[in-house]
Amino acid sequence: MKSMTGFGRANFENDNRSYNVEIKSVNHRYNDITVKMPKSISYLEEKIKKEISSNISRGKIDVYINFENNSVRGRTVKINTQLASMYIEQLKELALENKINDNISVMEISKLPDVLTLENIEDEEVIWNELEPCLQNAINNFIQMRETEGNRIKEDLLQRLDIIYKKVCEINEHSTGLVEEYIVKLETRIKELLNAEIIDKDRLAQEIVIYADKCSVEEEITRLESHINQFKNIANTSTPMGKKLDFLIQEMNREVNTIGSKSGALAITNLVIDIKTELEDIREQIQNIE
Questions:
Q1: HSE (CB half, 13 Å, CA atoms) of 3?
Q2: What span, in angstroms and rounded, lies between the C-alpha atoms of 234 and 238?
Q3: Has this prediction a pTM greater than 0.85?
Q4: In 80-177, which residue ranges form alpha helices assigned H by DSSP?
Q5: Quick one: average pLDDT of 231-235?
Q6: Options 3.40.50, 2.60.40, 3.30.230, 3.30.1890; CATH of 6-69+124-145
Q7: What SS3 class is residue 8?
Q8: What number of H helices and E strands is found in the chain?
């Protein structure tokens, strides 16, 4: 089980080229990846997204990549000779008009805007071969944090499921005695109304069958127990499970609501409220699961 919130970081340096990768994520229904990186290596964005999506299936994921190239490899200085000539021509005219010294040094010309530009001519394969292991380390650290948080959530969910299961068993115990209680109450009530010791057993049996069918929650309890087992089995897999667990919780809520509507017993009603409270807490936790 993995949480959808996490953070991972990694650094790499080679031949005076340094890389820093940070990955963080929050909850999201789908897999939404945003990459922020220097323009000089922006051509690697799709590769980076593909690498991340192959390891992470869900979440709002922000990736920050910093790249510094302090080596001469992959860099060149370009001189704009035409622009330099225009500067020189204009400066000479200015010196002539104002009758000042027109000695212009190369160093002074090189300092003028856009005369010298530093261009990156990075080898895409070289940069990717250096960035990829750094990216993978960040992803591994990111996943590890997600798994750590996911295990804490899993432990809490399983504890709550055990509480729910115990309360379902209590509902089952209470429900088995409902019909017997109804028979006693019905016989007493009929005798009071008719003021007679002899009652129509066939009519009584018919009423009991109708009531038993109406208040029976055996099917709902069976399905609840099945959903609890399914939940535990899914929680112990290594595949993305958030959406599956969310669906199961909806089904469990439906069964619990049916039990509450069928039974008028106060003890069962209180147990239903307790179970719904636990289910709501579980549902909130599941929203953070990948």
A1: 23
A2: 9
A3: no
A4: 81-98, 106-110, 124-176
A5: 93
A6: 3.30.230
A7: strand
A8: 9, 6
